[in-house]
Amino acid sequence: MLRLTSDHFPVFVPFGVIGWVVPEFTFYRYLWYLIRVAAAIAYRPVPLPENPTYLAEEDVTIIVPTIDAGEEFKEAAHSWLAGRPKEILIITEEKMRGPLQELADAVDPSRIRVLTVPYANKRLQMAHGIRHTTTDIIVFADDDAIWPPTLLPYVLACFEDQRVGGVGTSQRVQSVGERMSVWEILAAFRLSIRNIEIAASTHIDGGIPCLSGRTAAYRTVILKDPEFLHGFTHDYWLGKYQLNSGDDKFLTRWMVSHGWSTYVQCCKEAELLSTMKPNWRFLKQVLRWTRNTWRSDMRSLFMERHVWTAHPYVAYTMVDKLFNPFTLLAGPGFVAYVVYKSTIPVSDGGYHLPSWNVVVSYFAWLLATRTLKLLPHLWHRPQDIIYVPAFILFGYYFAIMKIYALLTLHETGWGTRAGIGDPTAATAAADTDGDNKTPGQMEKACTPSGYPFPEVRPYGQLDSTEPRREYV
Fold first, then answer.
1. What is the CATH number of domain 53-281+419-439?
2. Domain boundaries, the chain
3. How far apart are CA 122 and CA 112, in angstroms?
4. How many angstroms separate the CA atoms of 98 and 114, rounded?
5. Is 90 exceeded by the pLDDT of residue 427?
6. Burial (0-12, 13-18, 19+ Cβ within 10 Å), 449
7. For residues 78-92, b (16+ Cβ closer than 10 Å) or e, as one string?
8. Where is the protein localized (predicted)?
9. pTM listed for this prediction
10. CA-CA-CA-CA torsion for 110, 112, 117, 120, nearest 10 degrees?
11. Range name among 102-111, 196-205, 454-463 with the lowest pLDDT average
12. Which are the contacts of 4, defined by CB distance < 8 A and separation ≥ 6?
């Protein structure tokens, strides 16, 4: 912290020196921010090919795991159908089949099928949909994700590169009501920043920390792999806490660890709209996401470690986020120390600046820097500038939440949706029913009808002694 205490300069300047001590006030932090912005500006989405290899009506199945879709599902489903996919699979639990079948019939019964699993468990629902897919490309979507009609062609364009295994998109928040609540605006701020971050990381080294589960596309051959299906549905933290959420993080790590490239289409043609919790339950969503991020990033950095060589910039951002909550909270601590020193006479080693000067300067700096970071959002919604102070407060709350999440990684409940039961019990029941066999059992059970690519293995073999083969 640079403290200007000369009587000839009666202004507290909350600015620092290069380093990680207090990143909120360092040249280092804002240098990297400028690099990120420059990379995001330089980023370009993949253009549509003249003669596409993949066509949505032949090669795309949309899988939507859900348990409580409402009327908003109709708007979302109509937007999916505008892209002309071959089929949409709605995967739900048995007791919800009736209501969801009614919703599907009201939209398009010829292209929407409703399948069920015995227990509500997102990963088991996704796996069930994978097994019933016969197209080359699977697109996972949340039941409230609203797409532009051009989304599928732009997503499929990325798969022209045979090394690409997964594709994501940029996102914006759609209000649940007539006006956005403060919680939705906070979520919109976060998504605006995220859109810049993923565009930058994609441009810098081709990686991304997470292909968001709100909408992401994958090659079916990767997900049909029995090793993937077993690992996906039998994923444990510390070997004993089974995970149900965090599916998108698992999928992203699988792409990296098995040699597949990823890409994100950050453009209006592929930008989806998604609703967020319009009340305090948004905080529970953020807590779940934060726990998933801690678990997945620590696995990527310290256990699997593929990200270090595949995507070093993404690895750097992960490391940065590990320290960020602690260093962020150090900022107010330093300011409090300066305020305290301001109450001590200069002759006794105190600072001459009055405490009000320090506090006002500090908050002025925060307002200026946070407003700068939110300019992409404020350009489209300038009326949200009044919520910048709320975003600043949320940032410090989020830092505390991240530390709390780190200390409670053993808690794997969903948090915001009723009906999501114990994943261990659900998986055990599925195993008993034979719906979720072990890798060896799955390989014996695979047939051309159940596994449409029996002769093709993903790029990046599970056996490191075998040469890599590209998808054909």
1. 3.90.550.10
2. 53-281+419-439
3. 19
4. 9
5. no
6. exposed
7. ebbbebebbbbbbbb
8. Membrane
9. 0.85
10. -150
11. 454-463
12. 11, 12, 13
